[in-house]
What does this fold into?
Amino acid sequence: MLKLPKLSLYIHIPWCVQRCPYCDFNSHTLKGEVPHQEYINHLLADLNADLPLTGDREVSTLFIGGGTPSLFSPEAIQALLDGVRSRICVADDAEITLEANPGSIEADRFSGYLHAGVNRISIGVQSFNSEKLIRLGRIHGPEAAKRSVHLAANLSLRSFNLDLMHGLPGQSLADALDDLGQAIVLNPPHLSWYQLTIEPNTLFGACPPPLPDDDLLWEIFEQGHKLLSTAGYQQYEISAYAKQGYQCQHNLNYWRFGDYLGIGCGAHSKLTCTDGRILRIVKTKHPRGFMQGKYRDKENEVRLEDRAFEFFINRFRLLEPVPRSDFVNYTGLKESTILPQLEAALMKGYLQETSEYWQVTQQGQLFYNLLLELFLVDESLLNASDAVPAAL
It folds into this structure.
């Protein structure tokens, strides 16, 4: 029977003080004052429109991302969360995260967010090198970044995250390890450490800066990984490290093929229905259209032939074993559907298996894209008998 996974809620705040040259997220440079109440009204109307798809399900994690959500005042975040709670059940122990930019926060704001119900903050530091921060278009300096981390550490938060990038323009091995060392000294419970990639439709995409070559990138990762492991951080996803017990539950739900409802400009949803369908919904990207009440941009049903790939593109990001039962429960497909792909992955050494789990090997992590390509199922091999009956 198709099982309903945990449900998360993602809320998108689209504005930034200025757009970073590497950023391909749905962000828009703020012109004038932040339209706190007007945008909150539209967020809650957007949520109202989607509630029939969630039934009476409970939200287990909530994430306010952007853009720069910390441009919103604590009073606005309080009104937003109160409005959400009055419309949908949020678990008493829900992880509630807000993304913050060191250039737009101070002590009173952090305390206000905590009072509003935020119990986890994700701080976009990216680097502690002044020159690199300028090149990345960041509006804060190293001292502001450190100050924001100290503020978060002194609050009674459940956890906080520090975002750090490597593979920056002109970055040496020593530069990258120095950044990482400064982050470790600050002792965040969670650290997202990921490589800068050049995306189309960004300033860096139009004028690519010189980046470290593949050999240097690998050396940065190898030595950085050792540094983090020695400091007590466990890698649990390709670019996520945490102290024991501090993994990000919201992102874990994404990667475990959980359900999530997205509201706000450009937000994405993935929802499992009791009739066996899996829906993906995309909201209107531009604030102007969204705030005219045109919330939903696209909606499509995930086809049977795409479900295996969509399941594994998420699950194989995690280093934890994948329960074989989750594939059947959350895709509605029989395991026999992917038997040829599994055999190929096992033969190439990308996977190991037991009667209950699949485990991505180190070889599979290195050749992640090749592993995923195996699970692009030929729709001609599927028929109605391959689907597991939906829950009623």
Observations:
- Confidence is low (pLDDT under 50) at residues 379-392.
- The CA atoms of residues 128 and 142 lie 5 Å apart.
- Residues 214-230 form the longest helix (17 residues).
- The chain is about 35% helix and 25% strand.
